[in-house]
């Protein structure tokens, strides 16, 4: 498995290209913006991106989805519980002073426990409501892509529509913290961490 990280947008969002090395089949996790580094890396690796997997529907994670879908020929995947946020993307862009965007269209919907097969990779969907109602994490082998659920020594905000600190805390303590402690966590913003590190040092939850 090959992982390439890209940082894009004014909020410095992380996007991740994850490719199965044998088959070259790949996914892109989150879709902040279509930046040249993504297309050049995909070309360099010879990657075939089958899906764009969204961790949640907040505007800063989906603003580039329409252009990325067109450029990569990939299907967009999200939890249905976040459609209300995605469909009303401009309520959030205006709140944060960003230009309006066209709400994206999704080809596939996922739920807790689903397994997405891409090449030789098995991508496990873990529903982690709290930052948003439809927030999910993606577990691929010993790598967890946590979106805005869990950060290094922090967690996602819960003061926006669909947020709940109680649900977020439950998602982290009773789902993520029960995973193998050696799992590396790749968040939607900021540096990578591990489950073990967050169980020891994350004081917010």
Poorly predicted runs: none
Q: What about the largest sheet?
A: 6 strands, mixed
Helix/strand/pairing category: alpha/beta
Task: Please tell me how large the radius of gyration is.
Answer: 16 Å
CATH architecture name: 4-Layer Sandwich
Question: How many domain regions?
Answer: 1
What does the overall shape look like?
globular
Q: CATH-wise, what's the superfamily?
A: Ribonuclease Z/Hydroxyacylglutathione hydrolase-like
- Helix and strand run: EEEHEHHEHHEEEEEEEHEEH
Question: Any overview of this molecule?
Answer:
It is a single chain. The strands form three sheets. This protein has a six-stranded mixed sheet with strand order 1-2-3-4-5-6, with helices on one face. The chain has a six-stranded mixed sheet with strand order 7-8-9-10-13-14. It has a two-stranded antiparallel sheet with strand order 11-12. A hairpin with a 2-residue loop joins strand 7 and strand 8. The two termini are 31 Å apart. It is 25% helix and 31% strand. With 205 residues, the chain is of the alpha/beta class. The mean pLDDT is 96.
Question: How would you sum up this structure in a few lines?
Answer:
The chain is an alpha/beta fold.
Entry keywords:
205 residues; 6-stranded mixed sheet; 7 helices; 25% helix; 31% strand; alpha/beta
Question: What is the fold's blueprint, element by element?
Answer:
Blueprint: E1 2-8, E2 13-19, E3 25-29, H1 36-45, E4 48-53, H2 59-62, H3 65-72, E5 75-79, H4 83-87, H5 89-95, E6 108-110, E7 115-118, E8 121-127, E9 136-140, E10 143-147, E11 150-151, E12 154-155, H6 165-174, E13 184-187, E14 193-194, H7 195-201
Parallel strand pairs: 3-4, 4-5, 5-6, 10-13
Antiparallel strand pairs: 1-2, 2-3, 7-8, 8-9, 9-10, 11-12, 13-14
């Amino acid at each position: 498995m090959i992982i390439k990280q890209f940082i894009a947008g004014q909020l410095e969002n992380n996007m991740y290209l994850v490719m199965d090395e044998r088959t070259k089949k790949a996914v892109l996790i989150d879709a902040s913006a279509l930046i040249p580094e993504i297309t050049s890396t995909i070309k360099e690796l010879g990657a075939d991106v089958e899906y764009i997997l969204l961790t949640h529907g907040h505007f800063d994670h989906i603003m580039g989805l329409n252009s990325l879908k067109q450029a990569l020929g990939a299907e967009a995947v999200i939890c249905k519980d976040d459609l209300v946020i995605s469909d009303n993307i401009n309520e959030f862009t205006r709140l944060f002073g960003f230009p309006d965007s066209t709400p994206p269209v999704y080809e596939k919907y996922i739920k807790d426990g689903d397994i997405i097969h891409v090449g030789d990779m098995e991508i496990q969907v873990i529903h982690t409501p709290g930052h948003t109602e439809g927030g999910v994490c993606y577990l691929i082998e010993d790598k967890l892509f946590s979106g805005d659920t869990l950060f290094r020594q922090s967690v996602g905000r819960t003061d926006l529509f669909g947020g709940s600190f109680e649900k977020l805390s439950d998602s982290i303590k009773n789902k993520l913290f029960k995973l193998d402690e050696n799992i590396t966590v790749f968040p939607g913003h900021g540096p990578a961490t591990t489950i073990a590190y967050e169980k020891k040092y994350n004081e917010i939850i």
